[in-house]
Design a protein that fits this description.
two-stranded antiparallel sheet; Enolase-like, domain 1; 15% helix; binds zinc ion; Deltex_C; alpha+beta; 10 strands; 4-stranded mixed beta sheet; 4 helices
C-alpha cells in the first residue's frame, strides 16, 4: 500500500519555506457526474478549528488551531487574517497551501495529472439546449498509456491512457470555463491516475473532481445538457482547486480554436 501524492506548489511563497512540495493522501478518482463520496482533498489530521471559536476570549485567540498550544512566532495569513505558529503553518502549506480554518487558497495547487494533451475548439454547427443562440466548445483530452510516477498510487506500475471530450456552450461564461480548464490542465488538476468510478478499473487516467459534460444532450443523468446550473458548479469546482478568473491572462485568450 503506497501513498499517492499531489504536489501543492506555492506560488506566492509567503513563508519562504525551502521545499515547496510534499505529499498528500491519495484521492479517489471520480467519473463525470458522480459527486465524491469524500472530499477531493483532506485537511491536515489536526485541524479542529471548527470546534474552536477563534474570537471568544484572548486565551482562545492565542492558541494555534493546528497544534492547539500557545502560538509561537505568530504568523498571520494575508488574505483571511487567521494566525498560527510559523512552524505549524509552514508544515501545513507544504501539505496544502490553504488556510486550515477557512480554506482560503494561497498560491497554486499542483496536481498529479500524467502527461497528456488538450485541444479546445469551437463549433457553430451544434447547439446546446438552453444556449440555443450559441455554438459549442469541444474540449478534447488525450493521454497515452504510461508508467506511474512517485506521485501516483502505484509507482512503477503501468496506467492506461484515455481520450475524453467535454462540451461547453460557446457563450461568454462557457468561454471563461474553457480558459479556466486550460489553466487547471496546465496545473495537472483535471485528471488523475487511479480507479475509475464508472468502470471500476484501477490504474487508469480518470477525472479529478472537475465535472465535464461528455454529451451535449441527454440531461444530467447522461452527463449531458440541459443543465442550467452546470457552468456555475464547474466554476465552483475550479475555484476549490484555486483556479479562478484572477488566473486568466492573455495567454489563454486564443486557445479556443475556431472550427473550419
Ligand atoms: Zn501551532
Ligand atoms: Zn483563514
Amino acid at each position: 500500500m503506497s501513498m499517492s501524492s499531489n504536489n501543492w506548489t506555492q506560488q506566492s511563497n509567503i513563508f519562504n519555506t525551502g521545499n515547496p512540495s510534499s505529499t498528500q493522501q491519495g484521492e479517489e478518482p471520480m467519473e463525470t457526474e458522480d459527486y465524491p463520496s469524500h472530499p477531493s482533498f483532506v485537511m491536515g489530521p489536526s485541524t479542529p478549528a471548527e470546534i474552536k471559536p477563534p474570537d471568544q476570549d484572548n486565551k482562545v485567540d492565542d492558541d494555534c488551531a493546528i497544534c492547539l498550544s500557545d502560538i509561537t512566532n505568530k504568523t498571520e495569513l494575508p488574505r483571511c487574517s487567521h494566525s498560527f505558529c510559523r512552524d505549524c503553518i509552514e508544515q501545513q502549506f507544504k501539505y496544502k497551501p490553504s488556510c486550515p480554518i477557512c480554506g482560503t487558497v494561497y498560491g497554486k495547487i499542483q496536481g498529479n495529472q500524467p502527461a497528456g494533451s488538450m485541444y479546445i475548439q469551437s463549433d457553430s454547427r451544434y447547439h446546446i439546449k438552453g444556449y440555443d443562440q450559441y455554438g459549442i466548445i469541444r474540449v478534447s483530452y488525450s493521454f497515452y498509456d504510461g508508467i506511474q510516477g512517485p506521485e501516483h498510487p502505484h509507482p512503477g506500475q503501468s496506467y492506461s491512457g484515455t481520450n475524453r471530450i467535454g462540451y461547453l456552450p460557446d457563450c461568454p461564461q462557457g468561454r471563461i470555463v474553457a480558459r479556466l480548464l486550460k489553466v487547471a490542465f496546465d496545473r495537472r488538476l483535471v485528471f488523475t491516475v487511479g480507479r475509475s468510478r464508472t468502470t471500476g478499473i484501477d490504474n487508469c487516467v480518470t477525472w479529478n473532481d472537475i465535472h465535464h459534460k461528455t454529451s451535449i444532450d441527454g440531461g444530467p443523468e447522461n452527463f449531458g445538457y440541459p443543465d442550467p446550473t452546470y457552468l456555475n458548479r464547474v466554476l465552483e469546482e475550479l475555484a476549490a482547486k484555486g483556479v479562478t478568473e484572477a488566473d486568466l491572462d492573455d495567454t489563454t485568450l486564443n486557445i479556443i480554436h475556431p472550427s473550419r
